[in-house]
Amino acid sequence: MTQKIAFQGELGAYSHQACHDTYPDAEAIPCRTFEDTVETVRSGKADLAMLPVENTTYGRVADIHRLLPESGLHIVGETFVRVHINLLGIPDSKLEDVKEAHSHLVLLPQCAGFLRKHNIAGRVSPDNARAARDVAEWNDPAHAALASELAGEIYGLDVLARHVEDFDNNTTRFLIMAPDLDLTRRGEGKMITSFVFRVRNIPAALYKAMGGFATNGVNMTKLESYMVGGAFTATQFYADIEGHPDDPNVKLALDELAYFTSHLVILGVYPSDRKR
């Protein structure tokens, strides 16, 4: 049976590219929202979900960290996609024909230098793949899309300019989610453990909670905070560490963390991607 993987966006979106690159034989299922993506897996209509969490240029993807703990899914892998942005136009059109470039609000600023150089106006679209589909339907050489080459292939567009992003290290990290937590895998390299926690309301609680990782030699690669419940005083933390919960030093660090927290949930344990 063909594996199915859900993603947010339309066919040709960068999340679709992540699915295509990581699971080339799987069936990719487009979803309207991140919540729909999660529900598609929870309902059994897909086996996995591909969710973007951060981009080297744009930063954290809004709402994802809030969604993860409540999703009912677990992280089973990660992948990194180099975001190459291309100017896509209708067949036989030329760069000098383009007056407007359509793309997602996040992508437009990443190509500001290119657009300014060629006197092209940026226009906001709900999705970069949707922009490619619209440009194909409009069939007007004055309109182009800023999107992936995969989107160009899907909607029959030509690449008028390749890799037009202002920064040459533009990369998005994706988390691969599944219904079940898998603690059996060890991988060939480092393991990553992701979790969320809330500290107890005592002085220096966060400082004390972090101390266990330092004293036990556990490398924490990410620590982010965000508000929960609409209150400024209710803060939840998301963290990634190197290691497996069964490793003696990780177990000691997590035990110490639990003592200073009121809430601790492991979101996933998975092999570190070689691109990390």
Summary keywords:
34% strand; 8 helices; five-stranded mixed β-sheet; 276 residues; 26% helix; alpha/beta; single chain
Would you mind describing this structure in some detail?
A hairpin with a 7-residue loop joins strand 13 (220-227) and strand 14 (235-242). The model has no long low-confidence stretch (mean pLDDT 92). Helix content is 26%, strand content 34%. Strands 1, 2, 3, 4, 5 and 11 form a 6-stranded mixed beta sheet that branches. Helix 7 packs antiparallel against helix 8 (248-259). It is an alpha/beta fold and 276 residues long. GO terms for molecular function: prephenate dehydratase activity. This is prephenate dehydratase. Its EC number is 4.2.1.51.
Question: Approximately how much helix is present in the residues?
Answer: 25-40%
What is the 3D form? Answer: elongated
Integer average pLDDT = 92
Report the count of strand segments. 15
Helix-strand category: alpha/beta
Stretches where pLDDT is under 50 for at least 5 consecutive residues are none
User: What fraction of the residues are assigned to beta strands by DSSP?
Assistant: 25-35%
For the record, give the distance between the C-alpha atoms at the N and C termini, rounded to a whole number. Answer: 31 Å
Radius of gyration: 21 Å
Tell me the major beta sheet.
6 strands, mixed
What letter string, H or E per element, gives the SSE order?
EHEHEEHEEEHEHEHEEEHEEHE
Discrete helix count: 8
